[in-house]
From TrEMBL:
One Pfam family recorded for the sequence: Glycos_transf_2
PANTHER family, per the entry: RHAMNOSYLTRANSFERASE WBBL (PTHR43179)
Domain Glycosyltransferase 2-like: 6-189
Protein name: Glycosyltransferase family 2 protein
Transmembrane segments: 260-278
Length: 380
């Protein structure tokens, strides 16, 4: 059976965000011959049970342990029948035309093996990891030492996130983010699947690099935007940082050991200790994230739905009325709004507002204000 697309989502303890993700994915698959896999890595929040009940059209693989990101993706890839395979995080929202736009782009460019996409976080801010360069010793040192953060638009200091490439320009890039990798199946057949020695982090860098080595190009696709809330499957704590640094060194030892692996290790080690030193002198702040404030603006296409039984005051508005307000929490009623429309509003207004997604069917209000912290889920 030949299909247009196989979507693969590896989930781990992000059940409410997974609901939202799947809702957007199936909306984006309506005009396609597609299949959707959810591989659950033994979540404790009943993610697998939710998928089986609410999304029976999914191909569910419920692991009894957590074998890691690479193994879980490979489980589904081996069963996939799509011309293209999308590796997608569960804490994402795609637009209704995201898949059709990417398929058209890659059909027209047979030399493109894999594409990433423009990503914004839950506050509407652009995520620089949408496009990345090969982590050579110098590139990695600039990233780890923080130089890339000081010189965001510099080709010399910020090759890691390719800060010199405009976020709204489709452009060739080398490394894609594992949150969204749109891969040509023929390219994957040549490069091989995810390297299962990478448990979590680094596997996307390794696969992106091998796709290039197999003769294809990777691209950053800017003609569609998705939301990546981040932080739902893992906390950005010391354990995360240690795993990330270990994965970087693992990648270097695998691909660069004969050329400059020793230099890479020295520079990475210096960067690691620099980051740890900076972290040690920063005060630890406990942030109380405000879930809702007293200016909750419900965005809906059907004003009759503004009479929802919500436990907080709302001001129903259309997006044309937003110029009347300079602050507040925008609550998107996803039952009657297109995800594409929501993403456009967030990309336009960014941090002027806070954003929440009202999933009335599941009685859930979801949002995320900090990309390095878990988001907010309010059950109504």
């Amino acid at each position: 059976m030949n299909l247009d697309l196989s979507v693969i989502i590896v989930s781990y303890n992000a059940v409410d965000f997974l609901k939202l993700c799947l809702h957007s994915v199936f909306s984006a698959c309506k005009s396609l011959q597609a299949e959707v896999f959810v591989v659950d890595n033994n979540s404790s929040d009943k993610s697998a049970e939710m998928v089986a009940k609410d999304f029976p059209q999914c191909n569910l693989i419920a692991n009894k342990n957590n074998p890691g990101f690479s193994v879980a993706n490979n489980q589904a890839i081996k069963k996939a029948n799509g011309k293209y395979i999308l590796i997608l995080n569960p804490d994402t929202i795609v637009a209704e035309d995201t898949f059709t736009k990417l398929i058209a782009f890659m059909d027209a460019n047979s030399n493109v093996g894999s594409s990433g996409i423009k990503m914004i976080d839950g506050s509407g801010s652009f995520l620089p990891e949408s496009k990345r360069g090969i982590p050579t010793p110098w590139t990695s040192f600039c990233k780890m030492s923080g130089l890339s953060a000081f010189f965001k638009k510099s080709k010399l200091f910020n090759e890691y996130h390719k800060g010199y490439i405009p976020e709204n320009k489709t452009h060739e890039t080398e490394i894609l983010a594992g949150a969204f990798m749109f891969i040509r199946k023929k390219a994957l057949d040549k490069s091989g699947l995810f390297d299962e020695s990478f448990f979590m982090y680094g596997e996307d860098i390794d696969l992106s690099y091998r796709i290039i080595q197999s003769g294809y190009k990777n691209y950053y696709f800017a003609d569609s935007t998705i939301i990546h809330f981040k932080g739902e499957s893992t906390n950005k704590d010391k354990i995360y940082r240690d795993r990330f640094y270990k994965a970087m060194i693992q990648f270097a030892n695998k691909h660069f050991s004969r050329s400059y692996g020793f230099i890479f290790n020295i520079l990475i080690t210096i960067g690691i200790y620099f980051i740890k030193f900076i972290s040690s002198i920063k005060p630890n702040k406990i942030e109380e994230v405000e879930i809702l404030n007293d200016k909750n603006l419900l965005i809906t296409n059907k004003l009759s739905n503004s009479n929802l039984n919500l436990p907080f005051p709302i001001i129903p508005v259309s997006d044309n009325d937003l110029c009347k307000f300079n602050e507040g929490t925008l609550i998107f009623n996803i039952q009657d709004l297109q995800f594409k429309h929501i993403i456009q509003v967030m990309d336009q207004y960014k941090s002027q507002y806070k954003y929440r997604f009202l999933f009335d069917h599941h009685k859930i209000l979801i949002g995320s204000d900090k990309k390095n912290h878990k988001g907010q889920v309010q059950h109504l």
